[in-house]
Design goal:
about 230 residues, alpha/beta, Rossmann fold, SIR2/SIRT2 'Small Domain', six-stranded parallel β-sheet, four-stranded antiparallel β-sheet, 8 helices, binds adenosine-5-diphosphoribose
């Protein structure tokens, strides 16, 4: 029976793919007014601006490739049951080949009906741009993103995964946004927790902090797990 490795990733996981993080210097929240482009009120106030913001991020994503960190997590699937919980809305974990990916904050390459959140549509690379007037299947669409002021729908299954983990790993998040930031408190007693981040936030004593980027950190993690698990 393979050990269960549960990995929680944030924007730093995709930094080495050239995707901007949010709160680093030059990050997205320095360039855009977050409550205008990523909140429910902002979307109600000016849907045009919100559609434009996500269209630009989709074009950036199309130019990006998974990095060594993403590929390292796929390699770990040889020896462990790997489950990824990500705050990221990019599809780089999936494009790297990770099988179990749970998105907490939505998915950039998907839109959904404004009037029926169960109607979700995958955007094609050749048709990334949407406007407030875009209609699919008779429904006006919005980004399939969890805006600020909206609940993270997948947090329950995410907590269950963490509670079943034999090892829990946090990669590339400033641990600013809940409920994602609270996941590390759900590990069973004695389960090792690793945190890979070049500029780590404060974490409880006992967490193994690897103060480095995702690519190098996942490689180091793989080596450490071989000697400890
Ligand atoms: N490798 C790993 N981590 C990195 C790298 C790298 N190469 N470069 C930067 N980081 C780290 C930073 O040190 C920081 O801790 O990535 C983290 C990025 O933090 P944020 O920009 O706050 O991103 P994140 O924690 O994912 O934000 C959470 O906030 O705005 C919302 O919905 C949005 O999902 C996002 C949520």
């Amino acid at each position: 029976m393979k050990k269960k490795l549960v990995i929680s990733t944030g924007a730093g996981m995709s930094a080495e793919s050239g995707i901007s993080t949010f709160r680093d210097a030059g990050g997205l929240w320095e360039q855009y007014p977050v409550m205008d482009v990523a909140s429910a009120d902002g979307f109600a106030r000016n849907p045009e601006l919100v559609h434009k913001f996500y269209n630009a991020r989709r074009h950036d994503l199309l130019k990006a490739e998974p990095n060594a960190g993403h590929r390292g997590l796929v390699d770990l699937e040889k020896d462990y049951d790997v489950y990824i919980i990500t705050q990221n809305v990019d599809d780089l974990h999936e494009r790297a080949g990770s099988k179990n990916v749970l998105h907490l904050h939505g998915e950039l390459m998907k839109v959904r009906a404004v009037d029926d959140e169960s109607k979700v549509y995958q955007l094609k690379p050749e048709a990334l741009d949407t406007t407030p007037e875009t209609v699919i299947d008779g429904h006006r669409v919005r980004p399939h993103i969890v805006f600020f002021q909206e609940a993270a729908p997948n947090i329950e299954p995410a907590i269950e995964l963490v509670q079943q983990a034999d090892v829990f790993v946090v990669i590339g998040t400033s641990l600013n946004v809940y409920p994602a930031a609270g996941l590390l408190h759900y590990v069973r007693p004695g389960v090792p927790v690793y945190y890979i981040d070049p500029n780590p936030a404060m974490v409880p004593a006992g967490v193994h902090v690897l103060k480095m980027g995702a690519g190098e950190g996942v490689e180091r993690l793989a080596r450490e797990l071989k000697t400890t698990l």
